[in-house]
Amino acid sequence: MSVTWRGSLLSGPAGSKRGSTGPSSSRGRVWRGSSGGSQPAPSTDDSARGAKTRAPSRGGPRGGRGRRGDISGSSAHPTGASGRSNAGPFRGNDNGKLDESHSVLNNGSRSNGGQENGIKAPPVFGSRSGTSSGQSLRPSSPFGSITNTNGPFTDRSRDPRRQSAKFSGGSAKSGKPQDYNTRYEQLKLDRAKQRTEAVKSGQMADPNQPISLTSAITPTGTCTEMCPEFERVERIVQKMVDKSEKYTDQESGVSHTVEAKMLKRFRRSAAGYDEQLPSDIRTPKTLLQTMNYLLRYVVEDDETLATTHKFLWDRTRSIRNDLSIQQLTQAQDVSIAVKCLERIARFHIVALHLLSSPENSEPFDHHQEREQLNNTLLSLLYYYDDNRNLIKFPNEDEFRAYYIVFSIHDQRPDLEARVQNWPRELLRSPRVQVALELFAAAGNTWEYQGTLDAKRPNAIAQGLYARFFRLIQSPSVPYLLACIAEIYFNQVRQTTIRSIWKAYCRHPISQQHKNQEWTVDELTGTLAFDDNNQTIDFCEEQGLQFATNADGQMYLNWGQFPLDSVGA
């Protein structure tokens, strides 16, 4: 199945696809194959037109490995497979480099970056604010001004990892090697003084004095660097610098630590750790700058997403932690926080799709990824609700839709009641409406949901597996929304098997062996897999057995099949 994807993924509202064909598999498959011919120009809406897709396969995303050009060439809507193309969130150009117009993690409204088949495609991360039509869009950066005004948006010459003369292992000013141990000891002395001054000035509570909740002090960050100086030096001394924070000389292969590209790591609050100083917490503007750096110089680097994912996962969690600690209320700060969280949520969604493949050789914890996505979406919903009449969030309907589909297997089957409290314009949004349709079609009544003794069937469950997969392949479902729905593909397939059994196996067990209608080919189409091998693997995982008919075709043998074994 040929495929072409032109969608804004992590930057602006997620794109959608057109001209899809039948769904084909379980979670994690990346579409391949390229369709030629011109495509309709993208609309001002966040959906990107003109993609042919098929359903994700249970074999997992194929685009999560290889260099960036490979990832971009093999990823697309989670409903397709077979062949290779420049489809997907990470897109390679003719030189094997990533095309900025199809990157996956940025945010904002559309801009005309990148061009394919003579038609400009919207950048995946949205347009750069403060520019007019036809104007070259460039962001401000702590790494110097931009000299090149043509070509791709990302100027890699300004990436500190590539500035070997400036960051070759010594001081940027003197060129002499730094004694980090001496510097570390001095910073520890200065840190004690800073803590005392912060307590006296009321910036933080005295850790040695009891304090009531009503008198609690909300920390305010003052750090304007991507990583506080104390942490930078401490991690250098303790040899805890990530490879993504180093410069590697291309000739000698020697790596050097680059302080300018170090990012604050996530650290849990635990016994033995002192409370963070104001100088340890980054300001909202610095957090946005850090997020931009991750998207422009780490996500779009030439390494695989699988190898950089752990670094990205930790540093984005650190950004969320700094936002949470400060409890931002000012409109400007809240807008920045929402931008960061929206991009982080898109990153987790894409990672769930691309890195769930068995072919991914790097460690990937699907459960932890879902947990962090859930926490990010909840933080976004709180910001949306708390600032309902103060700030307009242009992407709110997009993330409300993600939340709905992500709640398909929620322990509280009361989503329909909860969404009634949302503003009317949100409920009427096409994104939210299609998400509600997916939610209802994917639900079932045989698997009870709830907590403790309150478990009960889902009130709006329809169990319409065919409708669910038709929606997934339809133009109304954007790429990222399909990536989230992909999490529940196997659950819907289990519902499919149960429905088939109830419809075809009512006659006595002694006669069930005569039912040979459900061949492997028929099941592959109904269960939305890419090929027969995936169908056979899935059915065997469910405890089902196959037999061979007179024509040599394998079919599902219902005679030895206990219904309760599916999904058990």
TrEMBL record:
<feature type="domain" description="SAC3/GANP/THP3 conserved">
    <location>
        <begin position="226"/>
        <end position="547"/>
    </location>
</feature>
<dbReference type="GO" id="GO:0005737">
    <property type="term" value="C:cytoplasm"/>
</dbReference>
<dbReference type="GO" id="GO:0070390">
    <property type="term" value="C:transcription export complex 2"/>
</dbReference>
<feature type="compositionally biased region" description="Polar residues">
    <location>
        <begin position="103"/>
        <end position="114"/>
    </location>
</feature>
<feature type="compositionally biased region" description="Polar residues">
    <location>
        <begin position="128"/>
        <end position="152"/>
    </location>
</feature>
<dbReference type="InterPro" id="IPR045107">
    <property type="entry name" value="SAC3/GANP/THP3"/>
</dbReference>
<protein>
    <submittedName>
        <fullName>MCM3-associated protein</fullName>
    </submittedName>
</protein>
<dbReference type="Pfam" id="PF03399">
    <property type="entry name" value="SAC3_GANP"/>
</dbReference>
<feature type="compositionally biased region" description="Low complexity">
    <location>
        <begin position="15"/>
        <end position="33"/>
    </location>
</feature>
<feature type="compositionally biased region" description="Low complexity">
    <location>
        <begin position="165"/>
        <end position="175"/>
    </location>
</feature>
<dbReference type="InterPro" id="IPR005062">
    <property type="entry name" value="SAC3/GANP/THP3_conserved"/>
</dbReference>
<dbReference type="GO" id="GO:0006406">
    <property type="term" value="P:mRNA export from nucleus"/>
</dbReference>
<feature type="region of interest" description="Disordered">
    <location>
        <begin position="1"/>
        <end position="181"/>
    </location>
</feature>
